[in-house]
Amino acid sequence: MRSTLLLSIVGFFTVAANAASINKRTISSEVQVCIDQLNLVGPKMDNLQAFLNTFDTGETEYNMATGLKVYDFKKIVNAALETSGIACCAVSSPVFTDEEAPALLSIYQGITPRVQEYTQSYIAKYPSFIEIPLMSSIYKAHFMYANEFSDTLGGCLVSRSPSAQSDAFTAEMNLIRAAYDEAHTVYSNIPEA
Fold first, then answer.
1. For position 192, what pLDDT does the model report?
2. CB contact burial 58-71 (16+ within 10 A = b; e otherwise)
């Protein structure tokens, strides 16, 4: 009885190990780099959002110093988007595998609400943020570049996605683009100093 149980347990772990090994092989090293870089984007946006939230709670007062700190967070977000785009566009395979596409889509879908949240935070803070016209101009440029980096990233994901996921990738890309476009439009209306 005990030996049967032991054999069952050993068998289970052998199957699990084989499944993990197969899973590992179905994601190419190039796509794994893309996944790793994509996984870094969300946390960078979370850090930016957390700092933006400090204005709402009264912990932070908006001035040139804190405006520059916002800009530093934004640069980090843009760099993460750009690096992800470079990594994902470097994938030589014309189409992601059935294992790669869902993994990438899941991460990409996690980025969309973060973009929407932090761009809406900027829009809500527009009356305060335009008090320093220089910083407002910098933010406007950020949204333009973020959109470009996001489009590059999204374009490479869409172009390599299997037909089953193509519409889903495209939908996420369009939502992200719309969020950046809206924020860029708002910050394009900066009053003359």
1. 55
2. eebeeeeebbeebe
Q: Which two tokens stand for residue 104?
A: 């990438």
3-state DSSP call for residue 58? coil
How far apart CA 162 and CA 67 sit, in angstroms, is 42
Helix or strand run (H / E) with residue 22: helix 2-26
What is this structure's pTM?
Answer: 0.83
Query: Does residue 77 sit in helix, strand or coil?
Result: helix
**In contact, 152 and 173? CB cutoff 8 Å:** no
CA–centroid distance for 111 within its chain: 4
Mean pLDDT of the chain: 88
SS3 57: helix
